[in-house]
Amino acid sequence: MKELQYPFDAGYILKKKKSIKKQLLADNMPRVEKKIAILGGSTTNDIRDITELFLLDYGIKPQFYMSEYNRYWQDAVFDNPELQEFAPDIVFIHTTNRNIIKYPDVTSTREEADAILKDQLSHFETMWKAIADKYHCPVIQNNFEQPYFRLMGNRDCFDYRGRVNFINRLNMAFADYAESHEGFYINDINYLSACYGIDKWSEPAAWHMYKYAMCIPAIPDFAFNLAGIIKSVFGKNRKSLVLDLDNTLWGGVVGDDGVDGIEIGQETHMGQVYSEFQKYLALVKNTGVMLTVCSKNEEENAIAGLKHPEGILKPEDFIIIKANWDNKDRNIEAIANELNIGLDALVFLDDNPAERAIVSSQLPMVAVPEMTAPEDYIRTVDRSHFFEITSFSGDDLKRNEMYKKNAERAAMQSQFADYGEYLTSLDMVGVIDDFLPVYLPRITQLTNKSNQFNLTTRRFTTSEMEEVFADEGYIRLYGKLTDKFGDNGIVSVVIGKINGDTLDVILWLMSCRVLKRDMEYAMLDNLVERAAQKGIREIKGYYYPTAKNKMVKELYADFGFTKISEDEEGNTVWSLETAGYKTKNNYIKVERNKEND
Amino acid sequence: MTEQEIYDRLNEVFRDVFDEDDIEVNADTTADDIEDWDSLAHINLIAAVEDEFGVRFKMGEVSSMKNVGEMVEIIKERA
Predict the structure, then answer these.
(1) With CB atoms counted within 10 Å of each terminal CB, which end of chain B scores lower, N or C?
(2) What is the ipTM of this complex?
(3) Does residue A45 belong to the interface with chain B, where contact is any CB pair within 8 Å?
(4) Which of A145, A201, A144 is nearest to A10 (CA)?
(5) What is the spatial distance between Cα A99 and Cα B78, in angstroms, rounded to a whole number?
C-alpha cells in the first residue's frame, strides 16, 4: 500500500490506523499467519497496531500475545501456560533505556561499573536463554537508545561512569550475543532513534503520561523497522533491483547527450552523486541482490553508457539488460520470468514519475519507491528495508554469479538439438546427503524462501530445523549441484518423517535455478534408496496447493507415485512402493559428502 | 483561523481516529460522549490533533483538559 511505503506520513498512519487495517484486510491478498509475542518494558499497544499494518502489507497476518505492562521478564522466565499455549513463531522484547535498572554514577569504581554491566547483561541473558529453551523460536530484542541527558557532557561517552558510555558498552554486548546466536536479532533502535533525532524520540511527556518509551509520532518508524526484520525472518524480502539508466544511474540522457555528455564521476557535483549511488548499488549487489536494467534506450547506447570509464557498475554487473522501447511493465514481467522469481521480489527504481505510475498500476506487486532527487536515492532505497538481511549464507554472496551462469547455460542449450545431449554436456555432479550443521542456515533459509518448486510450503525456523536435525525419526536430504559453469550451491531439500514402515515426505523443495536438470530425479533415487535401507515399504508424498506452486502439482505423478486422495482444496496425497523402484536420474553423477563418510 | 474552522478540522480528526463518519464534536464533548474514547484512544487523539494543527500540548494541559472546548481554546492560542 502506497501509504505504508517509505517515506510515509507517520501522522496519517497513526490517525487512520483503523481504516488502513480495514482496507488491507479487504484486498484478499493471500497471507501467512504468524504468532508474535510482544514482551514489553513499556506501553506497546500502538506498536502492536502499527506493526500489524506493515506486516499485513508484507503478506503476513499476525496474531499477537502481549505481556502485561512491564512484565516482559517475568513472562519470559517463569512458567507461563498462556504463552506456552500461544506457541509464538517469534518473540519480540520491547525494552529501552527506561528499563535499565542501574547505571554507574560518579562515585563508581571501574570494577563496580563492570559489575553493574555484567548484572544488567545477565538479567537479559537469563531471559533469552529461557525463551530459547521454552519456545524454540526466533527472538527480536531492542538494543538501547542514547540517554537524553549527559551528566558529564561530552565526557559521558568515554568515561566508564558516563551513561552514554554504559549504553554503548551494553549495546556492544547485545551485538556480541546476537552474532553468536542463530535466530537472535537486534532491533537497532540506537540507530533508528539517531535517525529520528534523540531529542524528539525521547519525549519525556510520552513516558510520564502514557509510559511510552518514545514519542507517539515515532511509532510508525519504529514499527516499520521491526516489521522489516519480521518479514525477512519469514522469507518476504525482495530479491532484485530493476534499474532505469538515464537520470537514475547517471545524469543526462545517453541517447541525446552521448556517452561523453552524461554526468558520472568526480567532474561535477551531480556526477559525484551518481557515482556514490552506483557505489552503493555495487555494495547491495555484493549482498546477493540481483541487478537488472530496464531502460527506454537503444541497446547500444545503454551499453555504451554503462561502459563509461568513470562508471562503477559495468554491463557484466547486471544479470539482464532490457534496453528497448517497449512498455516497462512488459519488460519487468519478462525480467521476473527470466530470473524465475515472483514480481513481489522486484524493486523498480526510476526517476520518471510517469514510468513509476505505469509500473505500479500494472504490476502492483512490484515495489516502486519515490525517486525524487538523486542525492536522496541511497537513503530511499536503504531505509525501505527491501533487502533486510537476517541470515547470511555463502550462497547469497554468490547468487549474482550463479544467475549469470544460468544465462550462459541457456545460450548453450540453444546449440543442442537434443535436450539430453545438452544435459550430458553440462557434466553435472551432485552431492546428496544427510544435513551437515554448517548447512543448516542455508537449508532453513531455503524453506522460508522457496515458493514455486515447493510441495508443502512448510516453513521452518532455525530452532525447528535444529530439532529435525537432532531427531533420528527423519530422513533428511540436501542436494548440491555443480556443473561445468560452476557451483550452484544447495538447491534442494527433502525431509521425510519415519512412521513405522511408511515415510511421510513433509518437505520437498528445489530452487528454480536448477529446473529441468534432472536434480529432482537424483533426489528421489537417493531418497528411495535410503528409505529402503531403513526398511520402509511405502513413501507418501503430499502436495498442498498455494498461489505459487502450481508447477509441482503433478510432480508425484511424474515420479511414478499413485494418487490416493484429493480433498476439496486440491490437497493431494500420493504413494510409492519402495520395492521394485527403478532409478530415474541419467545425467547427474551423484556423490556423498565427504564429511558424512 | 476561526473557531468554526478549528471545529471543522477537529471533527475530521475525531472521525479518522475513531473511524466513525458521523461524529460531531462541540465545546461540551467529553470522553463519555464517544464510545471508544478510552485512555489508549486518547493518546492517539492527542497525537493526531497535534499533527493536524502543528501544536504541542504541554503535559499539564493534556491531563487537565476537561472537554473539547478547552482543547479548542489552546489551539486558538497557538496555531
Answers:
(1) N
(2) 0.87
(3) yes
(4) A201
(5) 35
Residue carrying the nine cell digits 532505469: A244
How many contacts (CB atoms, under 8 Å) link A and B?
44
Fold that domain A412-596 belongs to in CATH: Aminopeptidase (3.40.630)
Return residues 196-215 of A near B (CB < 8 Å).
205, 208-210, 212
Question: Which CATH fold would you assign to the domain A2-233?
Answer: Rossmann fold (3.40.50)
Q: Domains of chain A: which residue ranges? A: 2-233, 240-383, 412-596
Q: Domains along chain B? A: 3-78 (1.10.1200.10)
Per-residue pLDDT tens over the stretch B36-75 = 898 889 999 999 999 999 999 999 898 888 899 999 999 9
Residue B63 with chain A: CB contacts under 8 Å: 209
Region class of A156: left (phi > 0), else alpha (psi between -120 and 50), else beta: alpha
pLDDT digits (tens, 9 = 90+) for A329-382: 999 999 998 888 899 999 999 999 999 999 999 999 999 999 999 999 999 999
Fold observed for domain A240-383: Rossmann fold (3.40.50)
Give the minimum alpha-carbon distance from A99 to chain B in angstroms, rounded to a whole number.
21
Residues of A in contact with B43 (CB under 8 A): 46, 209-210, 212, 216
Question: Which residues pair with residue A141 across a beta bridge?
Answer: A93, A186
Asked, colleague to colleague, whether A240-383 and A412-596 share their fold, the answer is no
Q: A59, A30 in Cβ contact below 8 A?
A: yes
What is the enclosing helix (H) or strand (E) of A510?
Answer: strand A502-510
User: In chain B, what's the furthest Cα-to-Cα distance?
Assistant: 31
**C-alpha span between B25 and A211 (Å, rounded):** 28
Among A353, A409, A349, A408, CA closest to A384: A349
Residue A131: phi, psi to the nearest 5?
-65, -45
**Are B16 and A217 inside 8 Å of each other by CB?**
no
Rounded-to-integer distance, Cα A137 and Cα A458, Å: 15
pTM of the model: 0.78
Q: Which amino acid is at A593?
A: N
CA A83 to chain centre: 26
* Candidates A8, A9, A15, A47, partner chain B, best to mutate (most B CBs within 10 A): A15
